[in-house]
Specification:
seven-stranded mixed β-sheet, alpha/beta, 2 domains, Alpha-Beta Plaits, Rossmann fold, 286 residues, homotetramer, globular
């Protein structure tokens, strides 16, 4: 069944008749809807969001032709932004990392056991340390030095490595700032894990900030990267309880587990076409 | 908007075309779909479940006529079990309780502040202790003694009090067994809170059982009552962490909070037509 | 046993021999230690914190004499800040509230059933609305208008009502700012519940802030009030998961449950002498 | 500081004077107590449990001599069961595994990064599949076939491999029953991860059992292995929320994360001498 699975993601102005138009079109063309989730934002005028899984085995058209027909008959009349993606066309994911290996290893490990539906095409790092970890899993590793004076050259080199075929860039504890120009090349296609419960403790060394404030709960956040640091649309967050007994290093250890969980979930949801960005927020059909 | 809200709940054999048939019918009659959630069970042949919220303001038929038209045009061809309920027709809820007041007070308190969309019509207890708690909130209280020798008479009296208009019976720590005959009068319309993480620690004094086993997490369970004790379809569960420092009495205190939460959520979801029973399990569109 | 329970709370510069000095002193005077928890802060020079429960039934001195002996023999040599409190001398608690009743009701309800070891002596509000809720539980209610122009008079009246015998002031959603002068009268003896996961969303209308930021988890915080708004030592926090489906009003509903839990825990821990303030943080021996 | 850290674990009949005796003895010999946690069971006669961290840098005796002196002066008079362990003497841990790699990889990964204070000495499996995973981390791997007809020979071979120097055996999803004779060789020194929230769903295929029962929360349990299957003292449990949307395979995926967390915590706590077994329960000074 998974071989014939396709996912339709839609965002459009809310108005009556959307579900009827979509489902009637699909039914008429032999698509079987196996899952459907929707949401209407509460502000006025509202925005409508839908995620729909369908089986393509009984289609009367090739998928590309169906796209054309859908565009003409449904998407344009309703002014939809939309994608229709075959699940078998797995997204191509590149992972950027510095020295901390936990987020990288979690992704590679889940990917290898088939829990992460994507192709991990390469790992890029500003340090050589994790070459073995990547290559041991059969993933090409590229060392691209990066820093205050070399950012421009580094990003140029990385863009060359990423090329035109990379669908998603994951910053798995990549400790360098990425420039607005770099971000603009992958709009809502760069996911970062921030090691705090954003918007608390944005910026540097969040576990130390959290320890200094004496919070009783720490967190981690996976979000899309935008031009403004630590301020992009949040995809997932998770938290863990701490107490006065926990030193900064304990917070880091507890945080590593949280970071692993949120980045793995965020990447899975993105790769399964479950996330729609709306302004600075996300709709996640998880 | 809430004034014109109606909820359609559906369960039927899974097959292509269900969404198209329902949404096209509703659109044709002027109903605006504002929320839609669905699920297909994975066994073969599958079962289809749907919850749909619609606005009735633009309907071209009265709701009762729409029901008839829907039955003929959609429900019968697809062999659906279904209900279409106006949210403004709030369910009539009776609460049975013994001496522990926490579940009762939580329900009454949430109801009074408008968080529980129902009418609490009466409180029945086998002890007189909580008369003040109920009547203080303006809810009639009935003391009906119950026990080993008086069960038959007690249940007859309670059935008389409940009458034909009670939609839901909530056992908010009602410490008497209800007979299969009583249960049969309210199929999937009696909700009980069990003070453990079922199926662990079914039966009497679950907090003592949990303490004796040395578990590190305790729980509470809200479920529909069936003829078999503590084995009905689970609606909601929640858990809390405990350690060797917690005595049985501490487990009871922690458990009271869990019981309050799960019973309040389960009653709210039932009253908002979010729960469909399927075999011994529930589909909860929460 | 509870009748003879006393709690010793200690904070002093860390150095070898503290436990031996305390436990030998207590053993020599017939006190039986039934619980002991301690913590040493990691910074250098370190600070030592201890909470110790003891049974006074076998004491060879009256408690007041024991205090004097302890001061001379142990506390002064180790430069301790300390209290030794009989559990039976329950703290006298006043609750300040505006219109939201959930935090107040939770405290009153837990207090009435014996889960909150204190005396609730009065409820003060800047609105008359909750007089019935307080008086229905047998607690005196005082309406003291407060606002931009009347703060000085209001606080003078409240200080008069609180008098010299109030041990703890709880701001259970009291929506007025309290002046530094008022705070100074109750150092580390005013507990506030803030409706966010501090330090995120300090200030006004935090649930709307959280909704606008698109967080996936909301929280509530109980903290001691200091001169700086929303910045005092955190005692307890709790969180709940939200999604794009939750409107601001839903966040408020979920948040009410979190607020109830954190304020109840914080007040209980304070009343059981489990909290020691250290700088802007707390040590909580929970 | 860690180089000079030692941990004292004590269990004895409860009575006055224990803390004073221990702390005075240690102070007199130059040991600096840096952490102390204790617990008294509530049954009568009670049992006393203590975990104490001390710095050995200022000791006036070698550690082995201190043990002898402590035994004579304190342990025997109070009838203590006790251990005094140098943290630098890391426990030797062998991991038994079948085909599922997640628990094994989590342990190896945490161990390699220094989060698991032990020596992983070998991995033994009844399948050859995970040889690369172990040896890639530099850990010897032994394939010992095991099954209904070969249990006796398999266990003999494993006991030979484990030898006399193995401190802890971890069953990281080892899908073979271990005999009472094998268990008796490592009393309270075999930790198993069970893939359910015990005591619910003991026995085979717990995720399928959980799915069939329609629970809303699934769990995992780490416990010491005793002669009775799935009934030994529980060290740690954790849970995750599920719904009707989750198929058995989803429960397994969610469960893998829970299993990883509970086994890693249980092994860390055991290796840090934080766990004392009492009857069929544990005291965990975490």
């Amino acid at each position: 069944m998974h071989q014939n699975l396709a996912v339709l993601l839609i965002k459009c102005p809310d108005r009556p008749g959307i579900v009827a138009a979509i489902s009637s079109f699909l039914f008429a063309h032999g698509a079987n809807i196996t899952d459907l989730d929707q949401h209407s934002s509460e502000e006025a005028p509202g925005t409508y969001f839908m995620r729909l899984e369908l089986q393509t085995g009984g289609l009367d058209l090739a998928l590309q032709e169906l796209r054309g027909a859908f565009d003409a008959a449904v998407a344009r009349p309703f002014a939809m932004e939309w994608t229709l993606t075959r699940a078998a066309d797995r997204k191509r994911v590149a992972i950027l990392v510095s020295r901390h290996d936990h987020a990288l290893l979690e992704l590679l490990w889940e990917w290898r056991r088939g829990d992460l539906p994507c192709e991990v095409t390469q790992v890029i790092s500003n340090h050589p340390d994790l070459a073995g970890a990547a290559e041991g899993m059969g993933v090409p590793f590229h060392h691209v030095e990066n820093g205050r004076g070399t950012r421009e050259a580094a990003e140029a080199r990385m863009l060359e490595l990423l090329g035109a075929s990379t669908d998603l860039v994951v910053l798995a504890r990549y400790m360098q700032i990425v420039s607005p120009g770099f971000v603009a090349r992958f709009p809502h296609r760069i996911i970062n894990v921030h090691h705090s419960f954003l918007p608390a403790f944005a910026g540097a060394d969040p576990y130390r900030q959290a320890w200094a404030r004496g919070v009783k709960i720490v967190g981690a956040t996976a979000h899309y990267v935008t031009a403004e640091l630590d301020a992009g649309p949040i995809i997932e967050q998770d938290v863990g309880r701490v107490s006065h007994r926990h030193a900064v290093e304990d917070l880091r250890r507890i945080g590593r587990d949280l970071e692993r969980r949120v980045i793995a979930r965020a990447v899975r949801w993105h790769c399964e076409d479950r996330v729609i960005v709306h302004g600075n927020k996300t709709v996640v059909f998880a």
